[in-house]
Amino acid sequence: MRDPARVEQFAGELDGWTVSPSGGQRALHDQYREFLKGEPSSLSREREQGHFTASALMVDPLRASVLLVMHPRVKRWLQMGGHIEPGDMSFRDAALRECIEESGYRQIEVGSTPARFDRHDVPCKSARGEVVQSVHWDVQFLAVVDSQSECILTEDAPTRWWDLQSAMPELDYSVKQLIDTAREAFRL
After folding, report:
1. How many CB atoms lie within 10 A of CB 95?
2. pLDDT in tens, 47-63
């Protein structure tokens, strides 16, 4: 994946990000930009040492709830997301595709710019099918969906709507931060 035009397209999407009040997010954004420019292969899971992923927290603002998926490998509730695929033309496209695949919903509106960035070590299935230790450079979005709309599941990982006013499951710090971003964005 050393297509300079594609790398520029993804880099342009990062450039569209608005500054978060968190200094840590600004620094992380700058590191993402440098990583993408310096490692064009980082848009593919073939780069086992670390690569980009895209995800989105699906929010139903009318019902003040979020949809999470029980990740089959890490056994934790997470937002929808995964690897950048060759047909994805942006991080946003990848996040939307993952939302559709993992949630079964089709009418999803993914935000036009990333909401957050999260870099984390993870056991990852390589392009060869082996599980290797890697680093995911996750570009995170917020997505709006009506929880009452048609849902056609194509994957078998369990999903669940969680009411933001009720007890939530134990969540990773990154997921909590993304939920806080959604609460602020949608005033939930």
Report:
1. 32
2. 999 999 999 999 999 99
Q: What's the whole-number average pLDDT of the chain?
A: 92
pTM for this model (two decimals): 0.94
First to last CA, the chain: 40
Q: What is the pLDDT of residue 57?
A: 98
Q: Kindly compute the dihedral angle of the four CA atoms of residues 92, 96, 97, 98, in this order, to the nearest 10 degrees.
A: 100
